[in-house]
Design goal:
By secondary structure, the chain is mainly β. The chain folds into 3 domains: 128 residues, no CATH class; 119 residues, Lipocalin; 165 residues. The chain contains 5 helices and 28 strands. Helix 1 runs parallel beside helix 5.
Amino acid sequence: MKIFSAIITALFTGAALTGCTFGASIDTLMAPPKLSVEQEQIYSALTNAEGTAISLKYPKSGKYLSAFIIEDIDGDGGDEALVFYERNNRAPDENALRINVLDKEGDHWRSVDDLSAVGSEIEEVMISRLGTNDRVNIIVGTSIINRSEKNVTIYIYSEGRLQGTKFSVPYSFIDVKDLDMDSDNELLRLTKASSEEPALAEVYKLDENGMYHRSKLELGDNISEFDISYGSLPDGRLGLYIDESSGTGNIRSDVIYMEGSALNSVTVTNDDDMNKSRPAGYSSFDVDSDGSLEIPFQITAAGYESAAEGERLSLTEWNKLDRLMNLKRRYISYYSLNDGYIFIFPERWVDNVTVRRDIVNDEIVFCKYKNGNMGRELLRIACADDAPSRDDRISNEYMLMCTKGDSSYLAVIPGDPDPEGDGLCITAGEAAVGFRTRD
């Protein structure tokens, strides 16, 4: 039990590095959430104005996940309410999706304006100033046709009127971010490639006169999806890491940044590395929680060079940009995409340790590797999806590394400390610090 006690102590040391989260999509909910007292009052005012034959519409992602958004949308210091809904008894040629604005007069809410919206579903909502203009922008992403086609529209609310601006364009990804780090937000828009145009990254700023200033950057052909992350570049600028999917099912990365009013692409000296593709799911990630992202590439684990493709195991290199904009290997790990965990090798394991799969026990085993042969076991990691499997391993001195949803991650260090004197055995603390999970 000494090993188990040491492991528990080590887990507290490494807890900050191994945080786990669990989330549920709005689409998985069986029924709309129960309304708060204030939301009930707003809903009552809405139905008084528009009738009861309506259905609330909930954003699918982003900061706002409620059909009711209570914010100061006109910048007057008082809150208004935005409600997204659709009419159930609409005319055939009438768009179902609508936005209603309500204002509070004393203790009572009153509907003050109602506007038809583009699309049939609310994807996400952002409320922000853009650039140096004081205008509060209501940025609404909507979708049609099974959510495959998205459109972003900017609305403004002023003097009791909700108005759509001339800004209404298709998108694949949108965000509001201070990309140039000047304390003013910009609107970022990415669009996938089409038969006429390559994929594009665009940034929009508003000046004092309400004019949009746009900067765009071409990303490439055949790009159909994006996975976006932010991280610091070596010179302190904010980098936008774009993991791009094509029709092949693989992804590659672009890193871009904003300087002044222009979008720029990071020019990597060893550009061949930047253009490597890897399987979907191996996206950029801040694996060491230092604020700067690493880009993963797969390498064949030692001992599997001649194995059939279905039997081959891989390790993952995590590469970071240095000040000369070279990609340099920072870590080697085993990355289980299916189970959602990463184990970073201690430096002394690199080139000396490989992995094998224990099919009977459904575990990954880390083994010494020397002169083409697998040696003794150094660590086992398991993912248990039920309580009996978890409890059985804990009773056999496995440590509980982390829980995420219904999954429990466990590890055990087998054998006696360093029986061969090669220094490859690890401590419980090292095992805890090397373990990460990904959503």
